Amino acid sequence: MSTPEPGTWRRTSPFAILFFLGRTLRLIAKNAWQSLAPLFALLVAYEGVLVNKLMLGGIAFAVFIATASLLSYWFFRFQIGADSILIRHGVFKKKQLDIKFGRIQGINTTQNPIYRMLGLVTVSFDTAGSAGNEGNLPAVTRDFADSLRERIGKPRTARTAEEADNEAEANALVQLNWRDMVRIGLADRRALIVFALIGPLMERIDDDIDRYLAEFVRIAAANGIELDAVGGVSIAIVVFFAVVFLFVVVSIAAAFLRYNNFQLFLDGQTLRSHAGLFTAHEHSMELGKIQTLRLEQGIVQRLMGRYQLTARQAISSGKRKSQKAFVVPVVTAALADSLHRKLLAPEGGRLSQNPTSAGFVPVSAYYMRSTILFAGLLPALLATVVLLKPLGAIALVFLLWLPIIAAASYRSWQRAGYVHDDHEIIRRSGLLGYRTVGLLFRKVQRVTVTQSRYQRRKGLATLSIFMASGSVKVPYIDHGKAKQLRDYILYKVETSQRTWH
Amino acid sequence: MFQNPEIALAELPNADDVEWEPLHPHYARVIRVSSAIFFTIVLIAITTLSFVLNLPLGPVVALYSLFAIAVSIAMIWPGISVQRRGYVLRDKDILFRKGVIWRSVTAIPFNRIQHVETSSTPLERKFGLATLQLFTAGGSSGDLKIGGLGKDIAERLRIFILNKAGSAIEHA
Question: What is the CB neighbour count within 10 angstroms for residue A23?
Answer without folding.
Answer: 16
